[in-house]
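User: I'm new to structure prediction. If I give you an amino acid sequence, what do you actually give back? Let's try with this one:
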Amino acid sequence: MLQDRLRAIARDTLRGMRRGIEKESLRAQPDGALARTPHPRSLGSALAHPSITTDFSESQIELITSAHASVDSCLEELAEIHRFVVREIGEEVLWAGSMPCVLPAEAGIPIGRYGSSNVGVAKTVYRQGLSWRYGRRMQTISGIHYNWSMPGLGDADYFGLIRNFRRHAWLPMYLFGASPAVCATFVEGRVHRLETLAPGTLYRPHATSLRMGRLGYQSDAQSTLLVSCNDLRSYAAGLEHGLTQVHPPYERIGIREPGVAGDGPESYRQLSTTLLQIENEYYGKIRPKRPIRQGERPLHALRERGVEYVEVRLMDLDPYAAVGITAPVMRFLDLFLLHCLLTESPPDTPEEIACVSRNQERVAERGREPALTLDCAPEPRGLAQWGARILEECAPIAEALDAAFAGSGYRDALAAQRGVLADAALTPSARVLADLRTHGNSYRDFARAWSARHRASLLAAPLPAEAEARQRRLAAESIQEQRAIEAADTLPFEQFRQRYLAPERLNA
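Assistant: Good question. You get back a string of structure tokens that encode the predicted 3D arrangement of the chain. For your 508 residues, that looks like this:
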């Protein structure tokens, strides 16, 4: 069936694939401690800039590319943004690892600020809600989001892809997970199952991606939200339930800060008391996406206009890559997503969704454990055997892509991951643990060294005058746009909050 579906895709359609990247990085001081300086004004407005913003923390830069027809052009844009940013942040570095640098106490981690407009205040209050619900440390984890689309696909195609991606997400977690160790400050005061590698560094011996495990972007509250991806209707219904169902623990937190008057962000603890404050709080490994119009809810946009692309959210930063990801890895993701699209994708069930979650957690925390087995109906299957079968099925897709693009990059990318699957020592997670030894088994010193190396290489690379002028123009325009947004506000924030969160605004 895969071969038949592949033959039905024209080369022009394959060449019509688009991919874009959202890359998060903490700003850190040269000694490896979190930089608590404000988002640099020379980078523009975090509220309005199209490609340079912040994620949870004021110290957490997010760099966003546009959608590109080629892997190389996407990386070129990402590198240009990086070169501009490192020139504007002084002695600070962009932290090379997904797991954070040396963190202060919870209250010392600054939450992102977006100005005085209602939408800016809402973004800050949302982040305050995240800190109340999950803690600020968890939100400082960084990663890569890979946005992917192909022409001619409908909602049913994208949801079939999403179901298969969820079933097989453990494979890219194994192949590209690069966070087997953490700085001890990350888990200070928390119950965990990590072992001590050296003073100040904790790890799991066979972990691939602690970022995607129990200590990472996980939520016990959200574990009750079994969102089906059988079609847009079922997905939207599950998400709407999370957006409208009051969650008693969050109700106890409350919306307003007791004793603080006014409409500023300091007057609020969270946007709402529902299981999810807004759509972005849903921690899926892959999400269907549709660009929104001004003031529109993302769920409404999906229901009204359908899926435009998928957002892959499980990629760790590659600590060995100056921009966090490489061209061969991007080509493999293209391959893998096409495999998910072209192979049979039966409907999901609550039982399967729970099974998928167990497999992902097992690989995140124990993926390199010899002879590890995963749950797979009708009986468990070895990780290596299952992975080898998937990679074998990717071979004709790689050939078709190389024919479409007149090269060998996709076959080379597949061959590289076959080697990684055959030898666990070649996985990024194993390489990180091996390299930690040369830094005294210190995660801080390992990531600090690579962060400094990447800073030096990016500073050494030329930033053409036209590129610098473009980045400065975008920064200036974003500041002007933020001022215009703030000047246009007429509603008090509380009215804005209630209107934005009104349940009827979720429907098409």
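You can read the tokens as a compact description of the fold. Here is one thing that stands out. The chain is about 45% helix and 10% strand.
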